[in-house]
Amino acid sequence: MTFIAVDWGTTNRRVFLIEDGRVLRTAHDASGAATVQDFPAAVAAIRSRFGDHPILMAGMVGSNIGWRSVPYVPAPAGLADLAAALGRIDEQTAIVPGLSHVADTRTDVMRGEEVQLLGAAAAGLVPMTAMLCQPGTHCKWAMLEQGRVARFTTAMTGELFALIRSHGLLAPQLTGKVADGADFREGVLEGARRDLAASLFGIRAAGLLGRRDDAVSYASGLLIGSDVVARLAEADGQTVYVLADPALGALYSIAIETLGGSSLLIDSHAAFLSGITRLWDLIA
Amino acid sequence: MTFIAVDWGTTNRRVFLIEDGRVLRTAHDASGAATVQDFPAAVAAIRSRFGDHPILMAGMVGSNIGWRSVPYVPAPAGLADLAAALGRIDEQTAIVPGLSHVADTRTDVMRGEEVQLLGAAAAGLVPMTAMLCQPGTHCKWAMLEQGRVARFTTAMTGELFALIRSHGLLAPQLTGKVADGADFREGVLEGARRDLAASLFGIRAAGLLGRRDDAVSYASGLLIGSDVVARLAEADGQTVYVLADPALGALYSIAIETLGGSSLLIDSHAAFLSGITRLWDLIA
After folding, report:
1. Surface of B (155-214) touching A: CB under 8 A
2. Are the CB atoms for B185 and B221 separated by under 8 Å?
C-alpha cells in the first residue's frame, strides 16, 4: 500500500512517499501552513509530483491557519484515538487531529508533535512509559504512559529566545552562534534558579561591567535551563528522550545532564515515519 | 540655596527648581538621554528656562548613552558614597553615579533609582532597614540596611511584557488595558509556579480553547507574580515598600498580598526630591 504523508508545520513542510512502511521519496520546502493560501491546489501539486495516492497530513495544516480546523483530541490519547478523530477532507485526503490537555489551571495544545511522540513509542525507539522532550520554538514535554500521551507541557522557550535576540535591550549583546561551553552551562545553572526576568537583566548588567564573554550562549543556557529544571521534577529520575535535530538536541541533553538528569537523543524523523505509517495502517 | 535637579531617564526627564528643599517649579518632557544629542546645549536650555543655578542630574544621563559615563559605586552604598563619587562636568554641573552589585554569579546595576531609594529612607518614608520595590520596565528590588542600599535585584518584567505584547505569538491576544480582577490574580498565582515559558504558552492554548477572557491582565499578573514570588523569600515577612505610579504600584501591591506578603505604596516623587536634596546638601 502506498500513501503520501505530509508533516505540515507553520513555516515549512516535509512530504514523504511511503510504500509498505518504506520511504520512496521525500521533499522539504518552506510552504508552511502560514504561507499557503489555496490548500486544495497545494495538495493537487503534491499529487502531481508524488503520484495520485491517498494523503495523510499532520500539523498546523489542521489548525485555524491551515486547511481546516480539526478539533483537538483530549489527552490521555494514543494512535487509535487520533485515527478515530481524523479530519477527513475527502476519501483520499485526511488530517491528523492535535491533542489538548487541561490540568488544573493550565491549558495546553499540540498539533503535529503527537505523531512523533506516539510513533517513537510504537517503533520501540522509547519505552511505552517515558518522558519525551521535543525542543524548538515551542518546546513540548510529554509523559507517555502505556504508549499513550498521558499529559504534556509546552514551554515557549525558543520563542522567548527569538524575542530577546531580535528586540529589546539585550538584542545588541546576543549576536553570534550558540555553542556549548562554560557560558552555556553557567546559564543553565542560573536558569535553574527559576527567576528568568532577573537572570535576563543580569546579562545586561554583566555586559555593562564587562563580565561575560559569550552572552548569546549564556542566554540560551538560561532559557533552556529554566525550562529543563521545571520538568525534571516530573521526570523523577527517569531518562528524558530528546527528539530534535542534533544541534538543539545536544544543548537540551547537556542542560538535562548539567541539572542532574539523564537523556538520550532519538531520531525524530524515524519517529514521525513510524507514527504516520501506523496511523495509515489503522485507517487504510 | 537654590539648585536645579534633573531626573534624566532613557526616554524622558523631569526638571525641578529647588530652593531650601522646596520645589518652586517643575517640568516633564520626552527629552530622554536616548534622544538628546547635545547635552551641553540641553543643559544650557534648562538654565535659560529655570535660571542660572547649579545642576545635579541622576539617571541614564550618566551612562554610555548619556552625557558622560560615570562609574558605578558598588553596593553597599549610601548617600555619602554617591556624593563622594559624583561625575563633575564643571563646578556648577554634576551627575550622580549609579550603583552596581555583584552577588555570586549574578551582576546588577542601576542608574537613577538609587536617589529615590536612599531618599525614601532619608525622608523617613520607609524604615532604614527595609525592602523596596520600584516597578517598571526594569523592576528594581532593593534591600536597605541602616539607610544604605545593601543589595538589589533587577527583573526585566516590564520589558518582557512589552516584548510579548508587541511581537510574537501572543501579541494578537494581548490587547486592551491591564486591570485588577480574577484574571490578573489567577496570573499572579500561576506566576508563582516560576515556570514562565510554559505559563506563557498556556495563554496561547487557553485562547485556542476559548478559556480566558482577559488575557492581557492574566499575562501581566503572570509576569508580576513570577517577579514578586522570587523576591518574597528575601523579604521574609517584612513589608515591601512600593515606589511607583499609583496604577502599576497597585498591581504590584495586589500581587504581593496575593502571594502572602504585605506592602505599602510610597510617593516616589517625594522620595526622589528627598534624595537629591540631601545629595545637594552633602556637596554644596
Report:
1. 155-157, 159-160, 162-164, 166-169, 186, 189-190, 194-202, 204-206, 208-209, 211
2. yes
